[in-house]
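Onboarding guide, step 5: your first structure request.
Type a short instruction followed by the sequence, for example:

Predict the 3D structure of this protein.
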Amino acid sequence: MLQALRTRLLAWRYEATGEGRGSRDLRVDLLRGFCVVVMIIDHVGGEQSWLYVFTGGNRWIVSAAEGFVLLSGFTMGMVHNRTINVKGVRAMFEKVFGRAWLLYTLTVALTIAFAAVSTALGAPYVEQQTPAHGRLDFAVSVLTFHRTYSLTDILVLYTLLVLMAGPALWLIARGYTGLVIAASITAWAVEQLWPERVPRAWEIVDGGFPFSAWQLMFFMGLVIGFHRERLAKLLRPRPLVAFGLAMVIALYVIRFATIHLLASGTGDVDVHELLFDKNDARIGRVIALFAAASFAYAAVTLAWGPVRRVVGWLLLPMGKHALFAYAVQLFAVAFWSSELMAPVRLDRENALFQASAVLFVWGACLVQPIVIHRWHQLTARREGPIPATAG
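The system replies with structure tokens like these:
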């Protein structure tokens, strides 16, 4: 019986499946899809929801935003390792800067469109945004990245991260991984200890994710993803669980030390904010992220079979099209937060509305590849066959 159980458990592992032998790591897609689902639920929000048992309602010491940034860096490192090895550094720079340009245009378009839709629908967060001098001033500020908006501020951060990933990947490929890590940690540490000394090229109105603080998670993911094959032994379940436990212990030690060394005898020190403030990506939040990521990656590796069957249908489409999913959820959030839905949201359980938003985004992710494929077919038919040249 024990042998049968062992055989069953081994069959559940990611490596034992056909998907585990593919070039794309579907575990990353599934975890990224989970981050998207959590963000949708928390962004739709509401006072009460049984779904907060799974998402935390954006009140836990780590959120889906950090996971999304870490996994984005990890994916980018894996992809461009292959690009550099197969096509060279120039091809990598072309793809990275092309991606950055796409993100820039998408961020600008989404920010302006989301602000317009939110204002028209009377979403409550509109009043929390800093007023602009006019529509033209707002548009110019968005175009120049001097202004962002609710829920699109992470897209500004992501655009800047991708833009900086090109030089970082070049350094990593040339053997300067240590330099990249040291520079990233230094920038993060300066932001934590002396934020007034961080050079700022320009101020971003309503920007909620300081680049110097949040870049650490992205570039750590970038380094791990780039060296994934060299780190393969450390990315197995047993070392990951051990690392996760070490991070949990470190978290408790730092919290204990902070309470007894910094907060002792003073009533004006908020230990939770000092260690876990989300906006500044404090040390406790970073450690909690790496602990959660280690446990999650180990869990989906060990139990890929049942996890794939139970939630793969929902999470994988959104994980594979994460950027598109995030863009669509903006307008789902605007609708469910609008004055139109206020009568049914007041003092009620919001799980139904959150689940509806998730299913809406999921459906859009299923339809998107079909629409793109049909569009390519139509454009190919219109162009027609290429005429043969006379020889």
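Each response can be followed by summary notes, for example: The mean pLDDT is 85.
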